[in-house]
Each structure stands twice: as structure tokens, then as C-alpha cells.
């Protein structure tokens, strides 16, 4: 039984033309028992099917199937404040970003803002991948790397326009950048969207399982982008580690795209689950360490031009 009564939030990202709006409309049409609130970054340019819209008032659009839709014309916090006032009218919040958005900036309030967290929980960031053109986008557009690294679910669209060899290459490349993301392949976003609304990517249990599933020696490099795994059996001093990470993100947030992991903290009988988004950090308690295993920290860092030896040295200075 789910005791978390907060509204789940799904962020949809991906480059222009990748299929974001098609996915949005498919989610609405396939999940008729769910009432959605929808924030559109580009309402009017690539928008919800026009025959769904009934009326408009104060940037809030009433939809024919009972959904609520609004434009992200002001600050996200202002838009969320409007939706909180109408929280009894919807069950799930969908946010479609622009094609050049960094989804981490949209996700940050749901992970780190205590007021927002009272009403909403981030379920997942979905990234639509334009499969035939991803390699080129990663070379030319910083935003493509942001979107891949931020994703909890990668949806490889337009696979009919890519050879099996190219699809396999693209999936391997994406996994190298982001080992946490689930993957699915599709043509014209023709898929069952229900599982996409129940990812629970931010729950300590899911992060714990993901981190344990990643190979202990996982290290991958794509051009200047890398995902690196760090392991320590010695316990961390939580105060030292918090300080180091806060300073790191303050001065190098443009290079650190994402961090997730399980931490062995001195004096704590449980695992500490850690993740970062933008310059925000989130620590939460995980399951207790079993008596028959050696506690071990495992931290995965995704970023640009990472100096592994220097980063490892700084982490070691935070050990208890």
C-alpha cells in the first residue's frame, strides 16, 4: 500500500522533433483513469492536441478529459503554487520541457525544495532520444548530454530510421554516459506508457538497487563526458563529505552533471542514499547494513573532464 500521498511528477525532455509531445498525448490517452496536471514549456508551439482544450483562464487550460494544463510563463515556483491550490483536481503532474532545456534545473525543486516536497515527489525524468541523430547531437549540443545524463528512462524513438547496429551503438553510448537509466526502443512513440508513470526513481530503495547493480569497476568515457564509479570500504565522516560536495558543486556545478550512490557513514547503522541535482544535494537513510557483509560506499559521478585521481584523493580526505 502506498502511504505517500504527494503528487508524483514526471518530466519529459528531449530535443525538438524527438517526440516529446507525441509521448505526452499518448500518456494522456492511454491512462484515462488518471487525472493529469500538465505544464507545457512551449504551449502553442508544440502543444497538447487542440481538440482536448476546452477553455483558458490565467494560463490554466481546462482539457476535455479532465486534465489541467498551464504554460510555464512565469517561474516554476509560481506555477506550482497555482497547482497546489487545485491539488484535489489531479493525480499526476507532467512537465514537458523545451528542446534545449537542462532538465536538472526543472527537477531541482522537487528534490531539494522542502516546500515543494510537501506536495510533490519526482517520479522520473523521461528523455526522448532521436535515435538516428543522437551521435551528432552529443558532439554539437551540450544540452543533449544534459538530457541523457539526467534521464531515469531513455526512450529511443524513430528506431525504424536506424540500422540495428546503429541502435545498439546508441544504446551502449547512452548507458556509458548514464548507467542509471532504464531503456526502451520504439517507433513513433508507440509503446505502453503506464510503466513510465511508476518509476519511483528518487526513492532510496530504487537508488540503492540501481547503485548495487552497476558494476563495481564501471568507468566509461565518451569524448569529454564520463561516468565514474568510486568505491570505499572505510566509513565517511558525514560532515566532511557534505562540506566537500557542497564546495564542489558551488564551484564546478557546470562540470558535475549528476551524482548518485550508497554511502557508508561512520556511526550510522543504515546505508546513506545520496544524490545531487544542480547545486543541491539530497541525503536520505536507506536499509540497515547486514551483519554478514562488509559495508561499502559506492558513488557514481557523471560529468565533463573529470579528474579521477584528484576526485578520489579529495573523497579519501573525507573518510572518518
Fold and architecture overview:
There is one protein chain. The chain has 320 residues and is α/β, with parallel strands linked by helices. The chain has two domains: 7-197, Rossmann fold; 204-316, Hypothetical Protein Yjia, Chain: A,domain 2, CATH 3.30.1220.10. Helices cover 31% and strands 30% of the residues. It contains ten helices and 15 strands. The protein has helices spanning 20-30, 76-84, 103-112, 114-117, 134-140, 142-150, 164-177, 204-213, 238-252, 308-316; strands spanning 7-14, 36-40, 53-57, 60-63, 68-71, 92-96, 120-130, 153-157, 182-185, 219-222, 225-232, 256-263, 270-277, 280-288, 297-304. β4 and β5 form a beta hairpin. The longest helix is centred in the last third of the chain and has 15 residues, at 238-252. The model is unreliable at 53-57 (pLDDT under 50).
Low-confidence spans: 53-57
Number of strands: 15
Give the C-alpha Rg.
Answer: 20 Å
Tell me the structural class. Answer: alpha/beta
Relative helix content? 25-40%
Question: How many distinct helices?
Answer: 10
Using the coordinates shown, work out and report the CATH topology of the largest domain.
Rossmann fold
Order of helices and strands: EHEEEEHEHHEHHEHEHEEHEEEEH
CATH second-level architecture of the largest domain = 3-Layer(aba) Sandwich
Q: Summarize model confidence as the mean pLDDT.
A: 85
Amino acid at each position: 500500500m502506498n502511504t505517500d500521498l504527494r503528487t508524483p511528477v514526471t518530466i519529459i525532455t528531449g530535443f525538438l522533433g524527438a517526440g516529446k509531445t507525441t509521448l505526452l498525448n499518448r500518456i494522456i490517452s492511454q491512462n484515462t483513469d488518471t487525472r493529469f496536471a500538465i505544464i507545457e514549456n512551449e504551449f502553442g508551439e508544440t502543444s497538447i492536441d487542440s481538440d482536448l482544450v476546452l477553455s483558458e483562464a490565467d494560463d490554466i487550460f481546462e482539457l476535455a478529459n479532465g486534465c489541467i494544463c498551464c504554460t510555464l510563463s512565469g517561474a516554476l515556483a509560481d506555477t506550482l503554487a497555482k497547482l497546489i491550490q487545485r491539488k484535489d483536481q489531479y493525480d499526476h503532474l507532467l512537465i514537458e520541457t523545451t528542446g534545449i532545456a537542462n532538465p536538472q534545473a526543472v527537477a531541482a525543486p522537487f528534490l531539494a525544495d522542502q516546500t515543494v516536497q510537501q506536495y510533490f515527489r519526482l517520479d522520473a525524468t523521461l528523455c526522448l532520444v532521436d535515435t538516428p541523430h543522437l551521435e551528432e547531437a552529443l558532439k554539437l549540443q551540450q544540452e543533449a548530454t544534459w538530457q541523457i545524463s539526467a534521464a531515469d528512462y531513455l526512450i529511443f524513438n524513430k528506431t525504424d530510421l536506424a540500422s540495428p547496429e546503429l541502435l545498439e551503438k546508441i544504446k551502449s553510448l547512452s548507458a556509458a554516459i548514464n548507467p542509471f537509466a532504464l531503456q526502451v526502443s520504439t517507433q513513433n512513440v508507440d509503446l505502453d506508457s503506464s510503466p513510465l508513470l511508476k518509476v519511483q526513481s528518487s526513492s532510496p530503495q530504487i537508488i540503492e538497487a540501481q547503485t548495487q547493480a552497476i558494476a563495481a569497476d564501471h568507468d566509461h568515457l565518451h569524448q569529454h563526458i564520463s561516468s565514474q564509479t568510486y568505491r570505499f570500504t572505510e566509513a565517511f565522516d558525514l560532515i566532511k563529505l557534505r562540506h566537500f560536495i557542497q564546495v564542489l558543486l558551488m564551484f564546478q556545478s557546470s562540470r558535475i552533471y549528476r551524482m548518485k550512490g550508497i554511502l557508508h557513514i561512520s556511526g550510522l547503522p543504515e546505508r546513506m542514499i545520496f544524490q545531487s541535482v544542480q547545486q543541491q544535494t539530497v541525503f536520505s537513510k536507506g536499509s540497515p547494513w547486514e551483519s554478514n557483509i562488509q559495508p561499502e560506499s559506492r558513488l557514481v559521478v557523471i560529468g565533463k573532464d573529470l579528474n579521477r585521481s584528484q576526485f578520489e584523493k579529495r573523497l579519501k580526505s573525507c573518510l572518518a
